[in-house]
Design a protein that fits this description.
alpha+beta, 19 strands, eight-stranded mixed beta sheet, single chain
Amino acid sequence: MALDISSLTIPAHSGIYIMKDSQDKILYIGKAKNLKNRVKSYFIKNQNYKTQKLVEKIDDIEFVVTDNEEEAFLLESNMIKRYRPPYNIELKDQQRYTYLRMTDEKFPRLLVARRTRTGEFLGAGKVYGPFTHGSSKMLSIGLLRKTFKIRICKRLPKEACLEYHLGNCEAPCQFKKAQNRYGKNVERLESILKGKQKLVDFVKTLEKEMKDASANLQYERAREIRETLQRLQNLQVRQKMETTRNSDEEYFGIKVDEQTAHVMSFRQTNGVIKDRNKFSFDLVADNSFSSFLSQYYSTNPIPKFVVVSEMPEKRDILEEIFSRTAGFKVNIIVPSGGNRKEMIELIMKNIALGISKGAEPALYELQNKLGLDKIPSVIECFDISNHGADYAVGSMSCFVDGKPFKSGYRKFRIKTVEGRNDFAMINEIIKRRYLRVQEEKSRFPDLILIDGGRGQLNAALEALRSLGHSIPCASIAKENEEVYLPKMKDPIVIPKSNPSLKILQHARDEAHRFGVSYNRLLRKIQR
C-alpha cells in the first residue's frame, strides 16, 4: 500500500529527499529545488510502471534541506555513492560535477581536475570547485583561457606556436615581457575561480565586449561572450557540500526541545560531505552533549576536527581522550565564521525542521525567540496609515506558514478616533477585528504583530483584555527593528540576517503597503 502523502508535511525548500521502505531501507535519493512540489509529483496518476513500483514500496520519506539547488545536487550525488539505492542510476565515472586545477608548473596551465572515489585529487597544483553542470569545463577550454592568455601546450615549445598567432597566448616560451605578465594573469584568473569580487569587474568587461562585438556585427563573438556570462553565474553560487580542502572533520548541531536533545551530524572526509546522521536522547541523570560525543566516538572513527554548534562540557578532557585514541591531535571547535559556521547553521535548520515536523524552520525559531507555546503558523499584523487629520486607516496583513495569505488581508476605516492618535486607533481596529472573529467563530491567529513600539503594543493588549481574549502579541519598531514583548521590560534584538526576523519584517511591510494603498484610494475618491 502506497504512503499517504497527505500525512507528510513537506518543506518548500531546496534539498534532498530520501525514500525508505517498511524495513527502513533506502530505496531512492533525489534532489529538488522545491521539495514539496517534487515529492508530490510522484503521487499523481499516469506515472510510468517503474515509478509506480517505487511509490508502492515507499513507507517513509526523510528530508535534508540545503541553502540552494547546487548544494542539493552535490549532497544527492555523494549520498547515492554512499548508499547505492536500488532505484538510483549510478554513473560509471562517479563524477557529476567539475573541478579545475591550476598546475604548479613554472607557467601554470588550467586543466579539468579529477578526484578518486576517496575524494583525493589527481595531479599537483591548486584545485578550485566544484562547479555543477560542467560549466567550468566549458570555461576552461573557452573564453577564460583566452582572456587570461593561459597556455595549453603540455611542453613549452621552442618557438611561438599557433595559439600565439591566434591571440590566445602571449608566448612566455619566447618573450621576456610575456613571462613577466604571465604570473599576474594567473593571479587574476585564480581570484575569479575563488569567487572573489574581481569576478564582478570581469563580468562588466565581458558585457562591454559583448556590446562592442554586436555593434561591429560580430554576432558569433557576441553569442560566445553571452554564453560565457551565463556560465559565470554558476561560479558565484556558494555551496558547502564539498570543498577542495582535504580536511577530515565532523559537524554536530544540538537543540534541546522539552527535555530531549536532538543531534544531527555531517561527516566530511577529503573535503566531501558524504552522509548525515540523526540522534536524540533524554536529558536525565548525567546525559549531556559531552557524554554523547564520548559514546559516539567509542564506535566511530575520530576526525581531526570536531565542529560543534555549542561547546560541550569538559572539552579539554574530551580532546585529550580523542587525541590519545586517534593517535593525532583532535580539536573541538565552535566556528565563528566562514564555511564551517555556514555548515553548522544548515544543520541547525535541519534539526528545527525535524522538531517542527516539517513546518517552516524560521517559524520554529520565531517560536523560541518570542517564547510562544506553539509555532506561529498564522500571523496577523496591524498598521495605521495617517495622512492628515481627515485620512486615517488601519490595515492588517495575514501570513500563513511564513508566507502572505492575501485573501486574509483586511482594511479598516477609523470610526471612533479623531486627530492623530495611533494608540487609540490600534485599540479600535484590534477590537473590531477580533470581535468579528469571535462572532463568526473563526480561527484566532497564533501571533498578533503590531507595527510600532511599546505604546502600540500596550494599546493592542488593552483591546484584547476588554474582549476577554489572551492572544500572543508582539510589536516591531521600524527604526532599529527591535521586537517588544508584553512581559519583558527591554525589547529583544534579533540579528538582521535571521530568517525569523525577516518573516516579521515582511508581515510588517505588507501591512504598511496595504494600508498606504487604501489611504491613497480614499483620498482619490473624496477629491
